[in-house]
Amino acid sequence: MSNLEGIARHFNLPHAEFDPAWDSIMLAKGTRERLLAQSLLSFTVRQKLPFEAAPMHGLILLTGAPGTGKTTLARGLANQVAKHLKGTKCKYVEVDPHALMSSAHGRSQQAVAKLFEHTIPEMAMDGAAIVLLDEVETLAVSRHQLSLDANPIDVHRATDAALAGLDRLTREHRNVLLIATTNFPKALDSAVLSRADHIEEIGLPNLLARREIIADTLKAIGKVWTKVSDLEAQADRLAKVADGLDGRRIRKEIFSAIGSDIETAKDPNRLTVTQIEAAFKHSLKLQKEMAA
Asked: Which of 30, 144, 210, 251 matches a 20 to 30 Å C-alpha distance to 70?
């Protein structure tokens, strides 16, 4: 935890806590290598060329629906970047955007300005700083879609402060890499999108990814309740049923299936494929009803 305003936590990288994060999200082939390569550009090309020649802002943006693993992936990416920057002291900084928003007049703008102009630069004084801006639309909401009649002018000013701070970081602190996530790219100010060096959409898992998620979850449960391991052989079947669910929901519904009746909840070894299928189908039905 951190006592700094707007900072959820910060520590040195690489960090063992983030090692599993890099591989835990099932992605299409080549996605991890692409994200890592694009991130490393901030510490190679961006360091050597002027902004006018290489207009890079040091911003990687991950977009996608909730539950697709963007935050986990971002943490894993930060850890991997640090591992490749051998000989460079790296610090991880995780921003809590909600802590910066305030109903007090002018308070949000001041807090956002302080984050970009003082707090983040101070974190990068003796090395590289890799900053996670989770739910970045909270900091830089689309000014085009907001109405001054319905939204306080402070929200607009906070977005202005975020953009000004981002530009200042770009020019004065090239040892800072920002990894931002958003569930709602349409709610994000277009000026932020234009500043992103790379935008990666993290979509719903495909058939192969769903199979891996299901098998991985059953394997973990099977380490304690050994009969559950037998269900891994049905991962292909279950993956087809789970089409339309995000990775987080797939994992949750397997545990929901364990809690589908008292006897299975008391002894997860009783879990069946039928129970898991029913949990997936129920979740998909609810998802469809909520979207209607």
From this structure: 144
